Structures are given as C-alpha cells and as structure tokens.
C-alpha cells in the first residue's frame, strides 16, 4: 500500500478536532473524512465513522492491523504539521 496523496483541511474553530483529511492510496482509492484530533497525549487520527441504529458509532473504513494504522497516522500527522507551518490558503 502506497499513500500517494494526503489533503488536509484545517479546522479554524476552537476545539479538539484540528483538521479533516482525505488520503489517496495507490492513486486508485480515496478515504475521506479522517479526523486529526488533539487528545491528552497529543495528536491522533480518527477514521470516518457513522452512527448506527443502536446509537453507537462504527468506523466506515479502517486499517486492519496496528502497523498499517501507525504508518497511516504518521503520514497524516506529518502532512498536518506541514499544513500548520504554511500560511492559510
């Protein structure tokens, strides 16, 4: 799996959510609405989710192993940090 594009939309409102990200994989598949969230231990990502009929939130798409999640998070947070350093568009 190659992450071929990361698009960061920074959130200007105050709060824990800092950005919404779209990731393209192998120039063929896109996952939208990955959230960058500031938690007590630093930044992390939350995969896109949907509320089910029982009121629980369930991921729409997500990595199936820890190493893939860690790699995805590292790439997304690196892109977010670069976006933070650049002036507003």
Automatic annotation (TrEMBL):
SUPFAM superfamilies with a match to the protein in the record: SpoVG-like
Q: Which domain of life is it from?
A: Bacteria
Q: Which InterPro entries match?
A: SpoVG (IPR007170), SpoVG_sf (IPR036751)
* Pfam families tied to this protein: SpoVG (PF04026)
Q: Give the UniProt keywords, A-Z.
A: Cell cycle, Cell division, Septation
Q: Does the keyword Cell membrane apply?
A: no
What family does this chain come from, according to its entry?
Belongs to the SpoVG family.
Instruction: Supply the PANTHER family for this chain.
Output: SEPTATION PROTEIN SPOVG-RELATED
Purpose: Could be involved in septation.
- Please report the name of this protein according to its UniProt entry: Putative septation protein SpoVG
């Amino acid at each position: 799996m190659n992450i071929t594009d990361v698009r960061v939309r920074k959130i200007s409102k105050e709060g824990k959510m800092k950005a919404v990200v779209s990731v393209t994989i192998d120039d063929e598949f896109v996952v939208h609405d990955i959230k960058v969230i500031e938690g007590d231990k630093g930044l992390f990502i939350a995969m896109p989710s949907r509320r089910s009929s029982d009121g629980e939130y369930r991921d729409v798409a997500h990595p199936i192993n820890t190493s893939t999640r860690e790699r995805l998070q590292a790439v997304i947070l690196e892109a977010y940090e670069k976006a933070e350093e650049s002036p507003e568009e």
